[in-house]
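Async update (no meeting this week)

Hi team, since we skipped the sync, here's where things stand on the single-chain job. The sequence we agreed to prioritize is pasted below, unchanged from the tracker. I ran it this morning and attached the output directly underneath so nobody has to dig for it. Comments welcome in thread, and please keep replies under the output.
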Amino acid sequence: WSSDVYSSDLLLDHVAQRFDIGVYYTEPEVNSILRELTDDYVTVRRYLIDAGFLSREAGRYWRTGGSVSDE
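Output:
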């Protein structure tokens, strides 16, 4: 996938569901999860933050948006 594919909120929502609500992640953990989807994980991480699906502070990341799966 090219990085511009990730500008879609629908796709970003799907990616955000890989992160558990209420769990704090380190940057290497976030990178590892995103590397499963694309080599351009840095851009995707930025899109997730900019769109409000992930938040970041003091080197910790957590999910702050996206839909919740019933599964």
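Quick observations from my side:
The two ends are 26 Å apart (CA to CA).
The longest strand covers residues 54-57.
Reply here if anything looks off.
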